[in-house]
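Risk mitigation, structural track. In case the binding assays with KG4 fail to produce interpretable data, a predicted complex structure has been prepared as a fallback.
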Amino acid sequence: MNILGIETSCDETAAAVVEDGRRILASAISSQIKLHAPYFGVVPELASRAHVTLLNAVIEACLKKIGSPHRLDAIAVTVGPGLVGSLLVGKMTAQTLGWAWNRPVFGVNHIEGHLLSPILLEKDLRPPFLGLVVSGGHTELILAKKWGVYYRIGRTRDDAAGEAFDKVAKLMNLGYPGGPIIDALAKKGDPSRFSFPRPWLPHSWDFSFSGLKTAVLYRLRGKNRWSMAEKQHICAGFQQAVVDVLVGKTLAAARAVELNRIVVGGGVAANSLLRKEFMEKANRLGIQVLLSPLSLCTDNAAMIAAAAYFKLKTHPSSAFRSLRVRSQSPFPPTPGPLPGVPLPSDLF
Ligand code: KG4
Ligand code: ZN
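Fallback model:
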């Protein structure tokens, strides 16, 4: 089954064609980073206008690659969570194409796309598994019981992990998006030179990153001018604190819910330290970690087409025929109580 995926939830305009949920036949992404960089964040009005301008071209690039729209069986479009104006551009385009080509159109949850992005390369991966989705808008710990049956174990109470990277980069005037810049600078810094707090939230599986961001702000206020070497140390210290919490808490959760398979997706999953520490620490605990391939960490449409395919396989198509766009669409919380959160010292 060939599905055309369309993704316009934030600042990437993307289309892709995926065969049977695993094989990418075509993929095109047009990034709006340059448009939003002067503002150090995504400007919703500019994003929707840019999607209108860019979407036809990315869809056409995919159609050219596969030869003809007749090879498509269905269309999947992100309907949330995201910027409503931007989501509407994707939804209207998908509906128009579905009508013109006489193909069904399905609405997909963006988080589900990130959650399932590692499966595009892993032929044998199937639920149950624990998922960590870490992006500019989300930090979610998810229990994937079956295809399409996902429960939220924890989420950020304030800033998303990627948002914290972006805001800390802005504080140091480093540019946007902050994640890749901090990742690169941290490689030249010493993470122990400036120590930052690890927001562990010991009685909950939730995360919190705004205090850590404020700790960086207070540290920066201590002095007027910071050399590039000092900024590199700050980047390294901040990144280490974020990674310690994300990796420590996700591994602890896997142990608590007795799952030995973790998948990690979203823009922050591209972070080199996060990838290294997940592999090393999970290995020590005998837990398998599947990281989204770098090309699929940030927003793309292949993950949307794949998510639609796996949901269609196990759910009647009517279950996600709704194309109502939503700025928020969280997974339901886990039914029943969750085990307590151990301290990191109990784990490593
Ligand atoms: O998944 P994504 O493209 O968009 C959302 O759904 O939010 O993620 C973008 C986020 C940005 O906050 C960006 O700074 C972060 O992912 N990011 C990174 C890295 N690459 C992208 N964060 C840390 N390290 C990276 N290498
Ligand atoms: Zn995303």
